[in-house]
Structure formats: structure tokens, C-alpha cells
């Protein structure tokens, strides 16, 4: 893990999210790229408007960075004219992003929302491993991880690299939870050997949804991180039919590592 990207929005929690990313990066000796995307609307003074908005974005990044303890981590500022997804894709092409660290709601402040539109769209429309950090959550060594899935199939084991690196860095235990949901296929019950090797134990349960299966076991296991896969018919397939996810549909009070369908 070399490059961590932190998209910064207008949320008052942005400083704490970046601090978490810095603390996490310290353990992995990563560089941290802090990004803000901005949009310039057409006006008569187009050039001056562009310059003003660009300066404002840079100033906002400087304010956030100045409020954290950088701990000698290499921090690089990136401002990008356009949408957040477009910016992330371009940065990934140039730098190869290993992990995105983001808060659940970078703009949306509604209490009933777990994933706001920006974060939801990043999870839905990118294939980059993403760590969603709860509001006000402080980093500490991750000693236990619950990895939940409805299919044990792993088409490319490089998908598992972020989970493997976190496990090895903190010598964490990884509990595997296979949730049999309605309509499962027998091949889904065959857990990939690479995934199985990462686990310290495997539990198989039946439930209406993966999330319900998680709820049945997360209090008993009390993990410090939850890891899921973003598959076309997996954990987020129904939730991410829309970008905003309400807390009544899903929420997580610990860091949530979302592994992509594929990135390689």
C-alpha cells in the first residue's frame, strides 16, 4: 500500500477523517493525497471566476491540513475542476490509488443518512478499495476484522490485498462470515482458498440479507473493522441502486473496508 486518497468535502468532520487517514498511513508508510473537486459555473467573467474558485478550493484544503498532526507523512494537495468521480478516476490513472479513505457523509448532514450521495457514488461507481471511517472515529491498531460475504468466489485474489495487508500489519484476527441468502447457488458456498487462508475461522449462517446476517453476529464478535465485497449481486447491490443509503437500511459504527469487484 503506497498511495492513499482522501477526498475532502465541506463536512465539518473532514479534519477528523483526514487525521484518521494520516494515522493509518503512518502505520503503512504511505503517501496521502488530499483532493477537492470544484465546479465553475459559466459567468461573464469566466477567467476570474475560475481563478477565484480554484484559489478557494486550495485555501479550504490548506485549512483542513493545517488543523491536523501530519506526523511526517508526505501530504500532497490536489484540486480538480469537475466532478468527484471524474477527479478520482484521473488521479487513479496517474498515481494508482491503493485506498480511498472517506467519511460516510462528505456533504449531506441529515442524521438519518449513513452514506451521503458523494460517498455512495464513490462506492458504487469506482473499483478502488475504500475505507469508510465513522464520524469522530479515532485510529487505533485493528486487532479483529469481520469479513462478511454471500459468495466465497474470488475471481482475482489481488482483490484481497488490502485485507491481507491490514491483517498482517496489526496481526489481526479475521473472522469469515458466509451468509446464505435466498437464491444462493452451491458454488457460492465454496470459499476461495486464498480468502480462507486469511481467516481464523469460518461461520456459515442463513439470513434474508447479508446485512441481517452481519447484525446477528457483529455484537457477539465485536470486531474493530468490517470488511465486505462490492459485487454485482453482493452486499451493496441492492443498497446501491441509489447513491444515498439511510441508516435504517444499513449503518456501521466501525471502519468499513469495501473491496472492489475488480481493480486489476
Structural class computed from helices and strand pairing: alpha/beta
Please, what is the average pLDDT? 84
**What's the total helix number?**
7
Regions with pLDDT < 50 over 5+ consecutive residues? none
Coarse morphology? globular
Biggest sheet descriptor: 10 strands, mixed
Distance between the termini: 15 Å
| CATH C-level label of the largest domain | Alpha Beta
Sequence of secondary-structure elements: EHEHEHEEHEEHEHEHEEE
Instruction: Count up the domains.
Output: 2
Beta strand %: 15-25%
Which CATH architecture of the largest domain is right? Answer: 3-Layer(aba) Sandwich
Number of E-type strands: 12
Widest sheet: strand order?
A: 3-2-1-4-6-12-10-7-8-9
Domain UspA: 1-134
Pfam family, one: Usp
Protein name: UspA domain-containing protein
Family: Belongs to the universal stress protein A family.
Explain what you see.
32% of the residues lie in helices and 23% in strands. It has 264 residues and is of the alpha/beta class. It has two domains: 3-112 and 123-132, Rossmann fold; 144-259, HUPs (Rossmann fold). The protein has a ten-stranded mixed β-sheet, with helices on both faces. It has a two-stranded antiparallel sheet with strand order 5-11. β8, α6 and β9 (201-206) form a beta-alpha-beta unit. The model has no long low-confidence stretch (mean pLDDT 84). It comes from Neptunitalea chrysea. Residues 1-134 form the UspA domain. Pfam families: Usp. This is UspA domain-containing protein. Belongs to the universal stress protein A family.
Amino acid at each position: 500500500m503506497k498511495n492513499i486518497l482522501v477526498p475532502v468535502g465541506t463536512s465539518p468532520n473532514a479534519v477528523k477523517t483526514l487525521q484518521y487517514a494520516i494515522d493509518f498511513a503512518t502505520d503503512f508508510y504511505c503517501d496521502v493525497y488530499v483532493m477537492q473537486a470544484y465546479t465553475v459555473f459559466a459567468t461573464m467573467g469566466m477567467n476570474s471566476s475560475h481563478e477565484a474558485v480554484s484559489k478557494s478550493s486550495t485555501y479550504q484544503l490548506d485549512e483542513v491540513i493545517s488543523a491536523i498532526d501530519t506526523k511526517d507523512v508526505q501530504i500532497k494537495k490536489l484540486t480538480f475542476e469537475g466532478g468527484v468521480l471524474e477527479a478520482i478516476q484521473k488521479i487513479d490513472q496517474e498515481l494508482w490509488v491503493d485506498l480511498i479513505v472517506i467519511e460516510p457523509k462528505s456533504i449531506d448532514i441529515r442524521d438519518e443518512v449513513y452514506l451521503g450521495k458523494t460517498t455512495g457514488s464513490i462506492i458504487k461507481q469506482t473499483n478502488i478499495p475504500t475505507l469508510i471511517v465513522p464520524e469522530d472515529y479515532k485510529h487505533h491498531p485493528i486487532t479483529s476484522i469481520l469479513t462478511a460475504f454471500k459468495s466465497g468466489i474470488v475471481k482475482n485474489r489481488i482483490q484481497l490485498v488490502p485485507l491481507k495487508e491490514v491483517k498482517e500489519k496489526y496481526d489481526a484476527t479475521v473472522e469469515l462470515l458466509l451468509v446464505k441468502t435466498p437464491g444462493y447457488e452451491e458454488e457460492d458456498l465454496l470459499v476461495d482458498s486464498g480468502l480462507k487462508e486469511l481467516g481464523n475461522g469460518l461461520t456459515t449462517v442463513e439470513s434474508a440479507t447479508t446485512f441481517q446476517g452481519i447484525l446477528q453476529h457483529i455484537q457477539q464478535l465485536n470486531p474493530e473493522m468490517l470488511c465486505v465485497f462490492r459485487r454485482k449481486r453482493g452486499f451493496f447491490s441492492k443498497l446501491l441502486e441509489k447513491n444515498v443509503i439511510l441508516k435504517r437500511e444499513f449503518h456501521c459504527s466501525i471502519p468499513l473496508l469495501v473491496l472492489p469487484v475488480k481493480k486489476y
